[in-house]
User: Fold this.
Amino acid sequence: MTKDIMDIDQILSANSAFYEYFRTSNFEAMANLWLEEDTVSVTHPNWPAIDGYDDVLDSWFRIMIEGVPPQIYPEDPIVVRTGNLAIVYCEENLGQTRTIATNTFRKVDDEWRIIQHLASCFPETD
Assistant:
């Protein structure tokens, strides 16, 4: 197996883990998946953008621990990779609704760590 294919598999595995940790309220694992830097960011649907590791984790805590995380499953992921950066585009299946997301990962010490998550609702159509 070539290094590029192995990296794609690792990126998709990290992306799947992100959603598993979210669904199961595994806050500790979610925190460990994020790169601990002030440059990370998250934008949840209908929320303002949030920057910085502590604030990003606080948003996940509010959703995963204080709230009820949705049963959310990624579908049809597409990986775009260049060097130590990768973006995964996917649809998020929440049962009755769907969102679209981009998850950006950076490879650090041979591990793909998430540095940005952006999820948005699909526009309503007639």
In short: The beta strands are 41-43, 50-51, 73-82, 85-93, 98-108, 111-121. Helices lie at 3-23, 27-33, 53-64. Residues 3-23 form the longest helix (21 residues).
